[in-house]
Amino acid sequence: MSRRPADPAPVPQPDAADTPFGLQSVCHTLSDANATLERFAWLGDHLAIAEWTRITDEAETVYEQPGHHTLSCYLNGGYRTERQKLPGRFGAPSRLCALPGDHESRWWVRGEMHFMHLYFLPEHFTRRAVQELDREPRELTLADRTYFEDQRIANLCQSLMFERWDDPDGRLRTNETAHEVLSLLLQAQGVSRAGAPLKGGLSSATRRRLHDYIDSHLTQSITLGDLADVACLSEYHLARMFRVSFGAPPHAWIARQRLDRARMLLRTTGLPLAQVAVQCGYANASHFSHRFREAFGAAPAGFRQAVREIEAA
User: Fold this and answer.
1) Torsional sign, CA 1, 93, 123, 19
2) 197, 210, 212, 259: least buried by Cβ within 10 Å?
3) pTM assigned to the model
4) pLDDT tens digit string along 263-278?
5) 23-192: which CATH number, 2.60.40.10, 3.10.290.10, 2.40.50.140, 2.60.120.10?
């Protein structure tokens, strides 16, 4: 695994021009609390990562509905930092905080701290809710948790500090690890939404039939009519209810399933790119490579090499 450079390049600052969600507020909040942004990177897939340090005396930090989820992992220090509504509970290395996008909180930040943030959107739970938990995305949200412990998540977060985020291969490896963190986070800290019963979606049995049909027909062209026949609905109603229950319209969901299968095949097999393209329903290797690079910012061969480096580390 590569180490961080001794003399890092200037830290890129998230700004309104290139920010797909409101990181400016978090960065300004932490800067007002005398925290220093050591490193920052966009990882693709609307994921962002930041490394922060703080060495000054007590300050109050306030978060007010930042609009994106944040996972915080303490790397060093934080022993005297506490959330105001939870007095007497303090930070420490490897302790984690999960902060939903609509949360509000006040903190007393004291002493030296070294921590990392992973920023992501509610939509990052969408496919995982359906595929990994057999739940509708609208059923789940991120729990608001302060200083919880999960050694698997903490270990992965700490490993991200040894990656070069300014290097395309390192950024790709970081993206892969971040997705693994989000899967673990959904399983451990995903909670059911409070409120009125959900209405207007597909039944769980129909959702599973559609999911299985798409998965088994990715090598072929899949039409809205095909899906409507599986669900025993009209095309109009299927399109509307599919979006509600899967969190995306049919064409977008299928496109992402093709990319997810391609990532899996590149990660776990040595198949030539032309065969990967066929098994994922792309017209040819060129079309596959274009779509893959467009989605992940790297060519399939580069992705495969990055994964091998992760496994060898």
Assistant:
1) negative
2) 197
3) 0.80
4) 999 989 999 999 999 9
5) 2.60.120.10
